[in-house]
Amino acid sequence: MAGKESPRQKMINMMYLIFIAMLALNLSKQILQSFGTMNEELTDTNIELVERNNQFMQGLEEKALEQAAKYQDLKLKADSIRNISTGLYDYLEGIKEGAFLTAESKGIQRNNYSKLDNTAYYTTLFFDGEELKPDGQEFLDQMNSFRDSFVEIASSDPKLVSIAEEVSTKFNTGDIQTEDGKPRKYLDYHYKEMPLIVGITKLSLLQSTLQNIEAQLLSTMLEGKLKIEASLTNFDAIVIPDKSSFFAGENFTGRIILGKNDPTLKADKVIINGNELDDESMQEGKTLLSFPAGGVGTKNIEGEFQFTEEGELISIPVNTSYEVVPKPNKATISADKMNVVYNGVSNPFTISFPGIDANKVSVSTPGLKKGKTIIEKGRKKKLTGASDYELDLSKLPPQLRGKKQVIINVTGTLPSGQKVTSKVPFRIKQLPVPYGTLDNDNPNSLKKSELINSTVTATFGPDFDFNLPLRVRGYKITVAGIGSRVVSGSDLDGPAKQLVQRARNNSIVTITDIQTSASGSTTEIKNATGISFTLVN
Question: 332-429: which CATH topology?
Answer without folding.
Answer: Immunoglobulin-like (2.60.40)
